[in-house]
Amino acid sequence: MRFQVRERIFGVGDDYWIEDADGRKVYLVDGKAMRLRDTFELKDVDGRVLVDIRQKLVSLRDTMVIERGDEKLATVKRKRLSLLRNHFRVTMVDGTELDVSGRILDREFAVEYDGELLAQISRRWLTVRDTYGVDVVRDDMDPALVIAIAVCVITLAEKERDD
Q1: Which sequence ranges form a coiled-coil region, renumbered to this chain (predicted)?
Q2: Cα within 13 Å of Cα(21), Cβ side
């Protein structure tokens, strides 16, 4: 499954649509402005909230949490002791760890589990300026979760760059 994401996104308070490969609107990322922490909601076309994305207020390193309803799904933060600046770890609630690495700010990175590619984020596939694709490789992966992971990683990388 491939999705198209407009580049002017990931600003808190910005709302934007994510489209499928045929150009149909699939998800709305609703940025919540005027909050103490970065907060986003990923909604379906009917306005139902699929996942909430929040920056953790108290943590040693910048951390974002992905939740569905009142249940935590995953925690995203920069990988500890990594020589690569663009390496993040996603810890799922069941303890499973996903690795996210690549050129995050260039929108060229991958999400992997135990060396297996789960999703790839890239500008290479699209000719539309300021757009990149999110390609969910495995059929059993939740596309909303993968998009939420991309939102978290890009938000954290941009925040670190700005600091």
Answers
A1: none
A2: 6
In contact, 65 and 53? CB cutoff 8 Å: yes
CA distance 83 to 77: 15
Q: Are 104 and 154 in contact (CB under 8 A)?
A: yes
- Please write the tens of the pLDDT for every residue from 41-65: 999 999 999 999 988 765 556 899 9
Q: Is 2:21 a contact under the CB 8 Å cutoff?
A: yes
Measured distance CA(109)–CA(7) in Å, rounded: 15
pLDDT in tens, 143-152: 999 999 998 8
| The total number of structural domains that make up the chain | 1
The amino acid that residue 111 corresponds to is V
What's the domain range around 61?
A: 2-162
Backbone angles phi, psi at 31, to 5 degrees: -80, 135
Point out which residues pair with 62 in neighbouring strands. Answer: none
What CATH number did the domain enclosing 104 receive? 2.40.160.200
